[in-house]
Amino acid sequence: MNVTIIALGKLKEKYLRDAIDEYTKRLSAYAKTEIIELNPVRLSDNPSDAEISNALEKEAEEIAKRIPNNSYIFALCIEGKEKSSEAFAEAIKTVTLNGKSNIVFIIGSSFGLSPKIKALADNKLSFSPMTFPHQLMRVMLLEQIYRAFQINNNGKYHK
């Protein structure tokens, strides 16, 4: 199993990088994990809708290039469905049972994801109606992926 996280922006804070490293290490028992950081398109201080749309399309091109073949794609977006940890674990189990060897999670820039990327997604996922920093979202996502593998393997982590 391969898990790929494609995220716009770079992690700067050491404590977040340390958390990412910890969950990536834990996940290594279940899956090869890769995190691909892409540079978001730079926008003016008060971007127009057209400028935002253009930026999202350029980001979409870069994201699409990084998605491995035979991937099941989760797009993290506001329109996504919230899932319990157990339901998320079941979704991952279903993906693996259906023969997909790659699971890709996409975290967009501060303006979200292009409609093209959302259309590519097999599953749109939302963690909450709240807004979280993109950098923290990576940690939260990795923790939930690890938790899902623990649930699916009857591990002790999930209580």
Protein model, in words:
This protein has a five-stranded parallel sheet with strand order 2-1-4-3-5, sandwiched between helices. It has one domain (2-42, 49-152): SPOUT methyltransferase, trefoil knot domain (Alpha/beta knot), CATH 3.40.1280. It contains five helices and five strands, in the order βαβαβαβαβα. It is globular, with a radius of gyration of 15 Å. The mean pLDDT is 95. β3, α3 (85-97) and β4 (102-107) form a beta-alpha-beta unit. The two termini are 24 Å apart. With 159 residues, the chain is an alpha/beta fold.
- Give the H and E element order: EHEHEHEHEH
**In DSSP terms, counting alpha (H) and pi (I) runs of 4 or more, how many helices?**
5
Radius of gyration: 15 Å
CATH architecture: 3-Layer(aba) Sandwich
Key traits:
alpha/beta; Alpha/beta knot; 5 helices; 5 strands
Provide a short characterization of the protein structure.
This protein has 159 residues and is an alpha/beta fold. The protein is built from five helices and five strands.
Draw up the topology in text.
Elements (H helix, E strand, L loop, with lengths): L1 E7 L5 H14 L4 E7 L10 H18 L4 E11 L3 H13 L4 E6 L7 H6 L2 E3 L8 H19 L7
Helix pairs in contact: 1-5, 3-5
